[in-house]
Amino acid sequence: MMRAMIRAYSISAADIVAEKERVKGDLSKFEFGAVIKLDQLELREVGRSDVHLRILAASGEHNVDHAVLADTDTIAAARGGKIYPGNSAVGEILAVGGEVKRFKPGDIVLTHCNGQPDSYGYPMRIWAYDQPESIGWYSEEAVVGDWQLVHAPLDCGLSLWEMAALPLRAPTAFHMWRRALGIFRLKVAETKLRRLNVLSFGGGVGECFLMLAKAEGHHAYFCSGTPERRAALERQGIHGIDQRLFNRFASRDDVRAFQAEVRKLTDSVSMHIVCDMLRGPVFQAGIAALARCGVNVSSGWQLDKKLSYDSAGLSVRQITLDHMHYETIDGCNAATTLYGSIFKPTVHSEIYRFEDLPRCFDELKRNLQTGIPIVQVARELPAAVRSLIPT
Description:
By secondary structure, the chain is of the alpha/beta class. 29% of the residues lie in helices and 24% in strands.
């Protein structure tokens, strides 16, 4: 039987090396289109528990920036020289294997990126990144196991683009919030302190994290250099802090100024929980902003993978640093039930065409976007989602 040939974006280790040689190691001159390229891909056959998808829309993720630039790891080389990225998408089911019961052709579904669950359900590998043999969803079509899909809540009140922004971000935030709150409650009982101060820096996961905190009655603060994103969260009752006023924490004086602003905003209490998805210079600012017994939680390393801190100082202050990766499959399903009621993401003003995906990632890297970037993959959208396209 002839297998389908489709267009899919790939990242080649050889192209990364060539582009780095061209710019002489200056990543500010790096051309994303020289590395992330449209390729031809033969889909594997649909197995008995598989689903054949047409990808409708996908969101831009920072892990792809890392894969293209090979700045914090060399994942394309580690995966044999080439990867097919994309681990967050909305799709339409075209066909299902004989043992698939939960889905049928025509269903609209979300993907999740839990590539290889451990014995507790948490991912040891991420789909379309470090999971061997995984093919991502920056492609026209895909074949995946039915366990990798969640029904899209088409009646949740979100647009198609807003739903496309959430399959990776909402489960990450959902798990981070439960962990951070649980750790804090081991130290400080709810009867001792009911309402907490919660801070997050930039990004879509951080936004979702604060939406959960706000929904549970806590004070929420969003530190971002993008005015459109701060304004969107302020409309949801989340206080915005302009990160640019503190020179993005380039010096100790900038961190001290931020610490003073946090104390001013919180009546000298500071933050009980900090979500830091960026690391780098933001890490020190987040630690400085924490109150006694505070929790700093992260699943990110956008700016840096290695950090140093004063362990004795954190011990005296009873500070906890927590690291997580991604949710369980059950957690992904649970997070999806909160679309529209709690999760209301900020989407970038331009919806990118499939052919413009390299530019999407270049602009993501340069912080030019006003919200989460979305790529429309399918030229023609099915009737089931046409009413969910903003006019």
